Known about the structure:
Structural class of chain A: mainly beta
Oligomer: heterodimer
Strand content of chain A: over 45%
Distance between the termini of chain B: 41 Å
Helix content of chain B: under 10%
Number of strands of chain B: 12
Mean pLDDT of chain A: 93
Radius of gyration of chain B: 14 Å
Number of helices of chain A: 0
Amino acid sequence: NAGVTQTPKFRVLKTGQSMTLLCxxxxxxxxxxxxxxxxxxxxxLIHYSVGExxxxxxxxxxxYNVSRLKKQxxxxxxxxxxPSQTSVYFCASSLGQGLWAGELFFGEGSRxxxx
Amino acid sequence: xxxxxQAQTEISVVEKEDVTLDCVYETRDTTYxxxxxxxxxxxxxxxxxxxxxFDEQNEISGRYSWNFQKSTSSFNFTITASxxxxxxxxxxxxxxxxxxxxxxxxxxxxxxxxx
Lengths: 115, 115
């Protein structure tokens, strides 16, 4: 059981380039999340999805787009990368939301450097 | 609005000492839930506990214990007889009981256990 898988694990981009991070989960979870982790800032929510075909903005959505065309996949896109987007990105999923949803399952993280 | 404050940025203790990590949360909702996650130096995020707002019972799991107090909006985490393997960054997080709401993390507390 793979759980939550993120690809790629590492990527170096030049300013202005675009890229997509893929998150795949095999647990049939409804909810999926993208967080970024920066030193001293903790985990900040970028975008999230409450089900296939839905997306919503988190705390720091600017400069990112997301899509959830299939329930098991949640894509995070950077249309024009900036050095400020250098970070470690974590994807997470959960069975649902609310009091009975259980824990968040995290991927291993994707380290992105924008030069 | 949701907010999680982990006021302790970094803590160092000598092995076998007890240590408490503080978490203070803010929400106007009456139904919510709280998490603690551990991030060891290897970088993955490890689930420790989840607590719903209506369950104020304290919890003990081995050397770990959690004190949930709604009156002070706190969900503190204590490690008894700390070990070097407890060295990590610890995150507290808050989610609301509504279907579309987010899970917000604090900035984390970096814990150093000195041999």
